[in-house]
Amino acid sequence: MAVEMLSFIDRKSPIHQLTGATKLVCFLLWSFAAMLTYDTRILVLLFIASLLIFKISKIKVREIAFILILILTFLLINNIAIYVFAPQQGVAIYGTKHILLQLVGNYDVTAEQLFYHLNITLKYFVVIPAALLFIVTTNPSEFASSLNRIGVSYRIAYAVSIALRYIPDIQRDYRTIALAQQARGVDLSRKEKLPTRIKNAASIVLPLIFSSLDRIEIISNVMDLRGFGKNKKRTWYRNRPFQKGDYIAISLLLLLLIISLVVTFYDGNRFYNPFV
């Protein structure tokens, strides 16, 4: 069976051996380092490091390919929107204007604008893969215990855990319902016209919604019967104590964040400017 999107993928790797709390803290430090800087040198370094981390985690690109394609599509749309609504943003940021292609009005293609788009793209390539890696290498129950460990209410943490567990369930239900409808003669292939395919898709969506509501009601009743939420604290089956690797990982990411901030703000400007 194919691997479900955004579901936990169990591997024997150093990344998987870290506790959920460690991976959450490291992801937050990584995100701060990437989002607070527009220094291209730092972003390139983080991108290379993300490739190395992916290699260590033993997660294959094809296992998250569909999500990556969606993200790349959104990235393309975002870059187009930035150029359409702010075609001279790079010029305003870097203070110079090197025209590469002269067009109508403010839509001249400049080296500064392309460099700004490069930085935006690098930010996506640094943060999004790290987020995906965090999700697919962390057991949902351990993720919930991690949130609770850093101060999040266990009720909210458990809700997040259920949501993450529910993603692969929805995908399995969708495939089951789709196969059942196809066995009844409902065609969802490209052979049908688009309006017909949309109409036929409703025969999958409606049963999927009703089955999801039924599962939600069952889970809610079970949690009520077991007195969930009665006490202020709870224990976690998946909670693990910190090991040596956890402290090393957090220390390295904290050091990386400090270096990123120092290099970024040493001249009082978040933007690395190669045009001066």
Automatic annotation (TrEMBL):
Location in the cell: Membrane
Major location category of this protein: membrane
UniProt superkingdom: Bacteria
Membrane topology recorded in Swiss-Prot or TrEMBL: Multi-pass membrane protein
TM annotation in the entry: 27-54, 66-86, 114-136, 247-266
Organism ancestry: Bacteria, Bacillati, Bacillota, Bacilli, Bacillales
Keywords attached to this entry: Membrane, Transmembrane, Transmembrane helix
Entry keyword Membrane: yes
GO CC list: plasma membrane
UniProt keyword Cell membrane, yes or no: no
Pfam family, one: CbiQ
CDD domains to which the protein is assigned, alphabetical: EcfT
Protein name: Energy-coupling factor transporter transmembrane protein EcfT
